[in-house]
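User: Diguanylate cyclase CdgB. Structure?
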Amino acid sequence: MESESEPYVRLSTLRRLHQAMAEMNTARSLADTLQTVADGIVKGLGYELACVNLVRPDGDLVVAAFAGNPAAAALMTGRVGSRASWERRLSLGEQWDGLVFIPHTEGWVLDNDDVPQWHTEGPEPRFEDEWHPSDRLYAPMYTPGSSGELLGVISVDRPRNGRRPGAWGREALQMYAFQAAIAISNARLRANMQRALVRLEREQQALRASEESFRQAFEYAPSGMAIAEMGGEQHGRILRSNDALCRLLGRPASAMRRYSFSDLVHPEDVGTLLRTSAEGGRAELRLARRDGTYVWVSLRNSVVADTADGPRFLLTHVEDIEERKRRELQLAHRASHDSLTGLPNAAELRARLSARLCQRSLTGSGNEPESPDAAYGHPAYGLGGHDFDFHLGSPAYGSYDHHVHVVAPEGDRDDGTKGLAVLFCDLDGFKSINDRFGHNAGDAVLIEVARRLSNGVRDGDTVARLGGDEFVILADGLGQADAQDLAVRLRNEIIQPIRAEGRAVRVGASFGIGWACCGMTADEVLKSADERMYIEKRSRPRQHRRAG
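Assistant: Predicted structure:
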């Protein structure tokens, strides 16, 4: 249990934590930064021992800094643990959000691995959350950005209060590890930049200052950059790419030189890329990663020209906008889906229904199209023979029109015609639940009904909430009998008891079955199904409309 003075402890911890972060971000070298990270845990987070394990270029982890015990520091510093052993510990331990905890009771996890560790003895814990000397707590550090590669692991021991960290202690350690990863990455970047500057100064004394500045800006830019050929048979081929772009796409620089951006762009975005390349402008498109997935990027081209010879190459800036696109998709989902049930809302329902309909009324016998070609929106023959005089730009046709006309069964008998059934569902007795038990109970009923309807239809069918206690199901490829069977099956699911606010309630359901047909609007289709629902509702005795 945390003490009553926790708010004061938190404020004090925040002050120490702030001081520790300030110190590790002002360290002069990578070694100083690593030691400052370890010292900050002892000073600011209340642990007696702290160790920073850093990933080496070969993938293994070396003890780079130790704080809290000079004898243990002399014993531990410089020792190496294999990557496989570390990954085993991090995967088998208890996951505390971003931390990994291995209690002393799970010591078998530590068997037969080569991770450097100190051994201390102590009695068994006297209470549940007391810290045991053999407990292990790790805070993995990952490189900033989308790649998220393992940078190192902070390990701590002996909390001064003798207890396993609570929620606040865990969050503080996790936040500290995140900031430490940034500080270490920045220190590495500064070290790399210093080494590069020295090397460039030694090897490229003859280069102009502007070329040196360009190289530094290109190589160490936080976002992706590439240089591509302009003009000729290999127009667009990537000549050079920086580390940020290679990490973003998961491809080494040597492999990037085999591609042009047109090889990497999503097929749907090729036209956007070509227009951007020609205009030297900006576009948002998707590029392929090595694992086959696509990442949204903002791509900006600049034409780098030579005053004597004209354009020479394209300088391309690539910014990762995956997170922003994800938020945009979330906002679009919220706009098109009901916030309570998560089902498509009325606007989305009308959009999906309208997408299946066209304004061309089907003539002939019943709702059958005039010919197989007419069913797909292409009148291959006119009354006078071959007829090629139709216009793709007319309202009935898109530039590449593949519309399949929607037809409906004729009358109430099942004539074998398969169509797009529109089932209009209205709950019976729902208002009384709202009135008697409150809106929370009513919301629980709506959520459960939405779940049962979704589970009762096929993949590809649409279940939408029209509003209030009204739902609509779009089910394609059904005949009259199929639609009736579906309505009966869904009604039987709905009438089962529902747990709401600690009590069992029941609602009934009335279904009206309408059929979508080209030549109708979405509102006309919904109105037809709504009218059939009310006919069906009135046809049953009032006492039978509710399930109970």
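The radius of gyration is 33 Å. The chain has 17 helices and 20 strands.
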